[in-house]
Structure formats: structure tokens, C-alpha cells
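Annual report, structural modelling task.

Input specification for the copper (II) ion complex:
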Amino acid sequence: MKRRSFMTQMAGAFALSTISSRLLAETNPMTMPMGHDMGAKPLQPAVPLANINALKGGQVLQALVPLKNESTRNGLFKGTLIAAPVDVGLISAGKTTFWAYNNAVPGPMIEVMAGDRVEILFKNHLSQASTIHWHGLPVPPDQDGNPDDLVLPGETRLYQFTLPKDCAGTYWYHPHPHGDTPEQVYRGLAGVFIVRDPEDPLAGIPERHLVISDLKLQQDGQIAPNDANDEMNGREGQFVLINGQYQPQIPISAPQERWRIWNATNARYLNLSWGDARFTQVGTDGGLLSRPVPDQKGLLLVPGQRAELLVNAGVRSVTLAAEIYQRGKMGVVAPEVRRVLADIKSASVAGVVPALPLALRQLALPGPVKAKKLVVFSEKMSMQNGQHSMQFLINGGQFDMNRVDLVSRLGEVEEWEIQNKADMDHPFHIHGAQFMVTERLRNGQIHPEPYLAWRDVVNVTAGETVRFRIVQHFRGRRMFHCHILEHESAGMMGNLLVV
Ligand SMILES: [Cu+2]
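The model returned the following structure:
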């Protein structure tokens, strides 16, 4: 079924049972009669899902597969990514067909130095058009996998860019073809991209990488398509995986480890906890903080976000879990449950924890502000062809590839204000540049951001306003959108033109 007709059918199916009480209360009864026969065709049925016990945990967490550097020249990384279906035996009932980069879920890890030239040859062996978006990386728009820059099935495309010297951080890559991004990501197309600083103050601490993804499996072992609820609230599967593994064991093998964590799920908010252990946060999406933030009991990592943590060995074992987080889902949804993600086995390890540097990096808030931008998230129920549908809007409109929504000037410091006038939390993401959040407004109160950090995703809770500063360094067209991929796909995305 074509996506558009699917969306149309689905839209009717939300009907009265699946909309929020506030929206119901605000809807004119003349246009939204209770008990009205919607006349909608049956929705994409919710398929029988595999039992939660179908996957067994307890295996030791595997390291990510590195992408081979085909270049021998210093300062040049050359690699090949092939997107293609791959069958994997996960459960006894039947095989699972993923779509994967180089047959790996998650895709291979790209590691380069800041300042490097990067050339990635992309071969699309899927049945759908695709692109590769370099999430968070400062690359020119014409190399950033924009939705209208498609690589058709069977085609090949060379992505090439030179990274600036100051962009060390924890990035990732995933497809961005409009309408098909959610499916391509939930079928397995995502990989990580680490940019290293030659002067990294934490170099030498052994690293561990945790790519958290979500898997919704049918009873027969196949990956389930999105149902109406997934399209409304964002898809969440019954399994949460780390590096493609279900509830692995993580044996801490050094006195101290540096963890990089990616939320590569379509829509799951990861309200991470680690028992009574205390971790130190040292980085966000765009690299290190100015100084370590110690004694962290947990961390909210929303879809698309990354974090860097320091984890010390000890004599206890703790559970890495995703605690319940209420993000304002609509309709009749299953109660939120706590998810166990991994067992951290933290035995006593010989050696000493290195003294942490007091300062990790110089960070300064960009200023003075030369221009302002306003982005308003909203949700709207409407009637279309006699059917009710839910729209996810930015500044009152849905994404149009051919419309410029905002214009920025190259090199100008801007203050952006993201207002969430919707009932759900929405994670805001912008391509090609990092920003620094300055403050958040909730219930009429200003909450200054506790520390400076480079980010490309920020959660905006329902009713909240977030302000940040950003500078654009490339001319061209950029996307900004909600990183709940189903919302982005439904049109919660805009075009920024940098001139
Ligand atoms: Cu959203």
C-alpha cells in the first residue's frame, strides 16, 4: 500500500476512541459528533506480536562493527555503505528481515578525526528510494541526504565533505527520504559516526558504545508494519535492543569506561536509570561539556539524542533500565512499563580511576543575537473527506518540500524559540548545526539551562518553550523537525534556507 493511502485510511481510524480529551473538548460538536459513523475502512490491523519471552537476553554486549577505511592517506576516510535487506534468525517461529547497512544492525561505526575529509559511497539495494543524513554533523546541505536528494533503488551516490576542526562529538547517520524514513529506520538502517579530537582530554579511557534501538516483532518473526497507534504516537516495539542485542550483559572491564549512548529509536523516550550507581556526564550530542557533571542517577535521552558518560567499576551490579516517562501519548494506549535494557556487571577491576580533568573544553555562548526565529509545534484534529485526521504542525502548517519556512543569514547568531502548544512532548531537531539551549519556560517560570552544551536535539515538553542560540555555517536548505519519526513523516518538518 502506498504510504499516502495508508495515512488516509489510518487517519479515519483514529476516530473518537483515540483522541485526547482536551482535543475532544475543544472540537466543535457540529463538526465532530460523538458516535458519528466515520465510514472509515478498517485500519492497518494491529498484528499479533511475538511474546516478550521470545528473545533471550544475557549475552555479553558486542562491540560495534567498524566501517573499513578504504583510504591509506592521512586525513581521508573512504568507506562504502550498502543498504540492503538481510535475513536474521532471531526467534524460532521464523526469520526476521532487516534492512541494514553492510548487513549490520546497527550499521557499521564510522570513526574519523576532526578536520578529516570523508567520502562515503552509498549503494541503495533497497526497493525504496533512500538518502543518508549525517545527523548532527556540520556538512553542506547538498551532502546531507535531504529528502529531495534521493538515491533511487539500484543507484549509487558519493557523499563527500570535509569536517571542521572543532566538531568532535557523537553523531549518527540514518535515511531521510520523506515518508519512508520511519520504516527504513525501524527496519534497521542507522549507524553511528564518531568524530575524535586529536587533543581529547579523555583520550585513553576505554570506550563502550551503546546504540539503543527498538524492535516490534510479529509472532512469525517478521518486523511489524506501523499501525494507527504507531502513526499517532510514534512507534515503540516490544523489544528495546542495545547494539542489536536484547538485555545484554555489560561487564565493566576497566577501572573507568567512557560510554557513548545513542537513542536510535523512532519514538521511544529513554528515561535511563542505573540503580544506585552514579555516573558522570561528560558530553552531549555535539561533544564534551565544559566540565564534568558528576553523580548522575539517570538521564533522559529522547529520540535522536546522544550522551557521553564516565562509568566507574565497583563491586556492585546494577540494572540499566528505561524508567516510565509520560510523554502525553494520545488515545487508547498500553500503560507505560519500565524496561530492563541491560545488566551492568561491575566487579572490582585492578587499576586506578584516572583523576578527572576539571575542565574538558572551552565553551562560550554564541552572541550577540542578531536575529530571532519562532517555531510553534501544534496538533490539530480536522475533517478530511468525511474522516477525522490528526495533523502534526509546525507554525500552523505541514511540510512542503517546495516552501521555504524560515530564512537565516550565514554566520549570524540567532535565538530560536520553540513553543510546544501540543499535548505531547516533541523532540526538536535541526540539521547541519549544533545549538546551545539558554532557558526553558514552563508554567510562566523561566528555568535557565544549568550548563552550556552543544546539542542538535532538544525535548520540548507539552506546553513548554525552549530557547537556544545557533549559527549557520553553510548556505543552502536545511530541515528542522520533530524527531519522533512518524511525526516528521506526517509533516512536522520545515525548511530553513540559509543565505
Ligand atoms: Cu513529535
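The mean pLDDT is 90.
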